[in-house]
């Protein structure tokens, strides 16, 4: 980003992925992501977006090539630190736990003081506007609220890197817009790096400082193009982005 010293956080070095079924999900993906960027992986269904994101979390490994986060393999990093948080497309909450205890869970697994975890969780719930629902159970919440809890849970871990796989895809338009605004706000306040998967071009253009465009046919064509977008952008912009003017 302009005006700040750039530090490379994520690197994909000539990464390909062939599943055992014979599907070539990624072909020679090569790009880097600087600290503090909001990067969208944009492309049609099946082009390998989730596979690429899962590689950053250490949940998938390249067949050839290398993915590094902070110079380390993601598996090393996930084992050693709490620097990466993942928000999946469905909220993945534990139904028997309250909203608060769902947000506390990742911190609880790391050990430490319950009181501190609770304070951190409440702060995160406040950020997504759900502090008043801390005692509710997931079944009492709407889809959008569950997604907010899932986002709060990821943010409470104070990740350096937030990975989100189509987190708003199943939500109605109003909820999606309000969560997009909140996410941009939190991203700017917390100065984290966000990797965001979407097949929605408007969402990618609205949210991102950089877009990695992925091709539907990874086996046949060169599969990624970086688009750098001007930042900072006015928060509060609600109009549809224009592509040519
Ligand atoms: P996207 O998230 O862009 O929709 P994915 O990364 O989920 O794409 O999948 C890319 C391709 O790899 C698709 O053809 C999908 O069917 C295939 N694929 C994904 N995961 C697996 C897997 N575990 N085993 C076999 N094929 C897979
Ligand atoms: Mg996907």
TrEMBL record:
- Claim: ATP-binding is one of the keywords in the record: yes
Kindly list the GO molecular function terms attached to this UniProt entry: ATP binding
Q: Which InterPro entries match?
A: AAA+_ATPase, ABC_transporter-like_ATP-bd, ABC_transporter-like_CS, ABC_transporter_ATP-bind, P-loop_NTPase
Q: Which UniProt keywords apply?
A: ATP-binding, Nucleotide-binding, Transport
The organism's superkingdom is given as Bacteria
Cleavable signal peptide: none
Looking up SUPFAM superfamilies in the UniProt record yields: P-loop containing nucleoside triphosphate hydrolases (SSF52540)
Q: Which SMART domains does the annotation name? A: AAA
Annotated CDD domains: ABC_NrtD_SsuB_transporters
Q: Does the keyword Nucleotide-binding apply?
A: yes
Domain ABC transporter: from-to ranges: 10-241
Write down what this protein is called: NitT/TauT family transport system ATP-binding protein
């Amino acid at each position: 980003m302009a005006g700040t010293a750039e530090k490379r956080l994520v690197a994909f070095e000539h990464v390909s992925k062939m599943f055992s079924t014979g599907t070539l999900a990624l072909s020679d993906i090569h790009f880097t992501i600087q600290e503090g960027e909001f990067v969208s992986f944009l492309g049609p269904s099946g082009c390998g977006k989730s596979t690429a994101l899962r590689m950053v979390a250490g949940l998938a490994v390249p067949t050839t090539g290398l993915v590094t986060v902070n110079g380390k393999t993601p598996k090393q990093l996930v084992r050693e630190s709490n620097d990466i948080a993942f928000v999946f497309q469905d909220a993945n909450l534990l139904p028997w736990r309250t909203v608060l205890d769902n947000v506390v869970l990742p911190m609880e697994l790391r050990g430490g003081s319950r009181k501190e975890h609770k304070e951190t969780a409440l702060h995160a719930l406040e950020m997504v506007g759900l502090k008043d629902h801390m005692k509710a159970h997931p079944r009492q919440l709407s889809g959008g609220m569950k997604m907010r809890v899932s986002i709060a849970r990821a943010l409470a871990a104070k990740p350096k890197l937030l990975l989100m796989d189509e987190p708003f895809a199943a939500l109605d338009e109003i909820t999606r817009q309000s969560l997009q605004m909140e996410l941009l706000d939190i991203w700017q306040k917390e100065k984290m790096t966000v990797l965001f998967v979407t097949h929605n071009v408007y969402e990618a253009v609205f949210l991102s400082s950089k877009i990695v465009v992925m091709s539907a046919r990874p086996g046949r064509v060169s599969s990624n193009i970086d688009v750098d977008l001007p930042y900072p952008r006015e928060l509060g912009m609600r109009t549809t982005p224009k592509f040519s003017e």
